[in-house]
## 1
Amino acid sequence: MCGAVRFRFEQPPVATRACWCRDCQYLSSGNASINAIFKTAGFSLVGEVSEYVSAADSGNIMRRRFCPACGTPLFSEASDRPDLMVVRVGTLDDREASRPTATIWTASAPDWAVPDPDLPSHKGQPGVVPKG
């Protein structure tokens, strides 16, 4: 948001999802968080980030990074998939390039949530993104 942190990936995302897990609701002020999953190979970063480490609903240890200047949530990594990074789509310069292809953790969504009925929906964490 403030421009103190810039990052880049050499490849397009391998998946983009709307996530209703409770952690993502905190990160997006009560709504689903739209997250693009990128391979960490080819990732570059300019600027300093702060991080918060915690356990996710999935049981994974998550490293969530954010801008220390403005507090914008940027990306996270799960302990079981260090080769992948989850990026908050709102932080991307081209948000249109990362349209969600599924909705996950719908069991955690509040009653007023309106998941896109045209997307595949999962009550929890779907199968992991294939390696390779």
## 2
Amino acid sequence: MEKILNHEDVLLILPTGGGKSLCYQLPALLVEGVVVVVSPLLALMQDQVHGLAAKGIRAVMMSSMQDMEQIIQAQNDLQNGALKLVFVAPERLQNNQFLHFLTTLNIAFLPLMRHIA
């Protein structure tokens, strides 16, 4: 976490339940701006958002599971600083509109999650 807070690149290889999520969730609360988490697993992103909400931490998932109204609300909340974390699938980074939207945010850091079965 210290390296993340110092804006250094980090590679973590830990087993399931090893605390990988905490390594970006806690720093997200300590820095100004939003953390954009890129993860290929929709179910995991959804679980993360629900788990964070249970702890009173506002996060959102932007994926094909949301309708346009939910996406617009998420974008507004992100721009207004109401959210600390946004979870997106890798393919969303191929969307030019989304990439342009990211330029409007104060991004603290961008962890890329890779899950190996």
